[in-house]
Every structure is written in structure tokens, then in C-alpha cells.
Amino acid sequence: MPVMDLASRLGNSTAFQLDLVDDTDSSFIDITHTGQWSLSSAAPKHGLQELHAPNTDLFWQSSALSGPHDMVVCFPHRVEVQTVALFLDYMRDETWTPHIVQVQAGATRNGWVDVGDPVTLTHPHGWVLIHNAPVACHTLRIRIVETHQQGRNCQVRGVRVFAARPSGTTFTPSRVGGDAVAMWPYTSDVMIKGEALR
């Protein structure tokens, strides 16, 4: 499925559709909840729980004196991230809205490599796809480099991370601790070796 089809399926809805791309005919899978998330800072009652809530009336709000502001996800095995989607709303958040976003990937939390150029957003409303070349990684950082009108903090109302579905496999989610975990059979030595952190 082309990325534009993915964008149209996300739409500008204010509620998450958690099974949005987990159907068997999709070429993408939502791997948002397969990793462990952390934030560079968070205001009280505006942290991870609100960022991942199934309602975009809730949001993550950073609480640092200045940026950049980071969302970091560590996956239990190497994944091939295809794209990242952020739900942003300039109409409601104004200067809190991210303006420049940089996606970075790495094998650990210390070795970050930029994935493509920073993306500049102008008054975004709804789901914004940050499409970069696919990247295989264990960790992913979504960095809010700058907010609109040089605001100090940011607000993000939703985040989704998508991977390309491995060809010839069927996505079968399983539940571990309440979170869906992607399980599919790797057959190549390269994928099997990179499947888990050592």
C-alpha cells in the first residue's frame, strides 16, 4: 500500500482506530505498542499515557525549559521502520505545535543517525506522515527540534510507528502484558541474527 493510502486511512479523526492497518491485506503493520517508550520530559498528567490514549483530546506536553524534545522507543528486536505518524493540531496548540521534526535511528540509545532531512511543518492539523527511507533499527527517536513561533515546549496528540509487513508472512499479534507484540517467522539468517538485542 502506498504511503498516501496509509495517510488517507489515518484521516483527521480525533480517535484512534487501533486496528487501522493490522488487517491482513495491508502492507504496513502498526508497531507502536511493541516497543518501550520514554519522553525527554513531561508535564504532570500529560505524559506517555496521554500520548498513547485512544483520544486525541489528550496529549503529551513537554516540560523542559528549552528544546529539543524527544520521544524514544526501544523495540525488543530489530524492526524495519517505514514511517512515523504524528497527530498535531495547530488550531488548538498554536505555539506548542512542532514545527521542525527529525527522526533518528540507532542500535542503542547512544548512537543516533539522522533518517533523512528534518521535516518542516506549517500549521499541521491531523495525522502528519514523516516519510523517510525504511530503516532497520532497535531504537527510534522522534525529536521535536523547534516549535511554531519559537515556543519553549511542545504538544503531540498522538504517535504511530509503522513497519513494512515482511513479504510472504501474515501478521499475527499476540498479547504480552496487555500490549500487542508482533510475531512473524523470520527465515533469513540476517533477520534471525538481528531479531533480539544481545
UniProtKB/TrEMBL annotation:
Keyword set includes Cell cycle: yes
Presence of the UniProt keyword Cell cycle in the record: yes
One term under GO cellular component: anaphase-promoting complex
Residues of the DOC domain: 7-188
Gene Ontology biological process: anaphase-promoting complex-dependent catabolic process; cell division; protein K11-linked ubiquitination
Coiled-coil stretches: none
Record's keyword terms, sorted: Cell cycle, Cell division, Mitosis, Ubl conjugation pathway
Family as reported in the entry's similarity comment: Belongs to the APC10 family.
Name of this chain's protein: DOC domain-containing protein
Organism whose genome encodes this protein: Allomyces macrogynus (strain ATCC 38327)
